[in-house]
Amino acid sequence: MKIDILTLFPSMFYGVLGSSILKRAISKDHIQVNLIDIRDHSNDKHNKVDDYPYGGGAGMVMKPEPIFNVFDELNKTPGYFRDQKTIFMTPQGKKYSQKKAQELSQLDRITILCGHYEGVDERVRDNLVDEELSIGDFVLTGGELPAMVIMDSVVRLLPGVLGDEASAQADSFNDYLLEHPHYTRPAIFRGTDVPKVLLSGNHAQIDRWRKKESLKRTLTRRPDLLENVKLNDFEKKLLEELKQQDNI
Ligand SMILES: C[S@@+](CC[C@H](N)C(=O)[O-])C[C@H]1O[C@@H](n2cnc3c(N)ncnc32)[C@H](O)[C@@H]1O
User: Fold this and answer.
1) pLDDT-based confidence at 176, cuts 50/70/90?
2) Position in ligand 1 atom list of the atom nearest CA 96
3) pLDDT band at 204 (very low <50, low <70, confident <90, very high)
4) Rg of the chain taking only CA atoms, in angstroms
5) Is 31 annotated in some ligand binding site?
6) Domains in the chain, please, with CATH?
């Protein structure tokens, strides 16, 4: 997958691209990340990228020319339009979700535009952007952190990127349930035992325990997720058992 990032602060990405899964995904050629400094594409002799808002008011607005100039360049790249999407990060966008991460992971190429100041000139949004995404109902200083969130969550879904494919599959939200608790060695830590079933070696029992804990977590922390989920008969039975327990 190719990922183009349009930003005024490319150096913010160095840490995240140089560590952990993203670093490995780049070195194994699963992804190619193209950090584009919008400032380099300004027509202004001082590389100005923002200006005062028409009509007055507080803050500055990112000018359209440098961003359009970047897209003029990108459009010259052979095959740029094939299976690609341009995303603008904004708190006004559709709330990002695991489902959207899965959808984006199917594309060949994504282009992410990071806003700053009060945001971008509306003509950029109208003419260059396919989709607007928000990472939550709060306002950050820029779109760089949200772009990193998108990149990380999408890249870990690409085939071969995670060491153990099953681990992305079992993550919370992939089947609309929160994931079950995890334990590692030692079996007793500061007086607290690991649940016995996990030490039993009985995989059917372990799977049952995990599914039940997953349902319990979802029921107690995110009951809204259960409204849209189609449970199978086994899961329905476990859920009924849980609902009958007093402490749930
Ligand atoms: C200070 S914010 C601008 C907010 C804008 N004035 C508004 O009210 O919608 C600057 C930039 O940060 C990014 N940003 C801030 N919060 C975000 C969020 N929750 N999700 C995605 N992007 C966000 C956007 O790219 C935005 O253009």
Assistant:
1) confident
2) 20
3) very high
4) 23
5) no
6) 2-165 (3.40.1280.10), 172-244 (1.10.1270.20)
